[in-house]
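Input/output pair, single chain:
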Amino acid sequence: MTTTSAVSLSLPSGLRPGGRFDVWCGKAARLVVCDIDGTLLGPFRKPPVSVIEAVGVAQHAGLRVGVATGREWAGVERLARLLTLRGPHVLQSGAEVRDGSVVVERWPLPRTLARALLDLAADRGWYAEFAVDSGVVATDGPSSHPAHLALLEAKPVGRAEDLDLERDVVLKATVMVFDPTELTPTLAALEGIGANVTVESPPSRPTLRYVNVTKPDVDKGRALRTAAIHIGVEWDAVAVIGDRVNDLPLLTAGGTAIAMGQSPDRVKAVAHLVAPSVSRDGAAVALNALTGSLRAIT
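Output:
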């Protein structure tokens, strides 16, 4: 596809139009960043063979493939190595950009906000995790919440109460909401301290809510722009693949936005293209389509 007129663009194989197909530039992608849960991974912790193969073919064709996630590097490294992802990666809900294990840029929580969150978590009895350079530290004992801890690639390395905020840099915090009825009051309390929040729910534990807290004005879309600049890729040659509302900052950025088939209508409405659902190898289909577009011009 060499034209930039959306009217004359052909639909990539296996994909269907999204809500913004009529304004899609159609430029072949040089960088694609994928959400993890619900995109690269379904209910299982290992990507299907179709995704592993599609990533390999894409990168062999010259496409850079990375992830965009709320996880820290320790929670992504195993998957990145399994898929041999070249990156760059958007981590910590947009608070950090990495190229492999090398930090490109980071936007940590202001110390005053980190302190206010620590105090609020103690007052409300919340289970919260704080991402620092040494790993993740948590507000209480890990054995209390096996449903959440079973999902972790890297377990908490210490107690949040022991943080020294004059020394320790907090990139992101996550408040775990185990009872869905507690989500609204939790968000209201966080709003009261000026927190910037996004909410995630892992497909394999749909009753869990992860409330991610980052520095105000941080999001995955802003971090993606930094990642693209880092490797010298033009903005309209960036593609993103995601499936949930927390991926909207990604899907409204870059040149090609692809929503997974199981995405809510709100997400499909901002996508240029829609792939099959995660249960039907949607990420592999999307990656193969992007690879085909790149090969057509090289």
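The longest helix spans residues 111-124. The CA atoms of residues 139 and 160 lie 5 Å apart.
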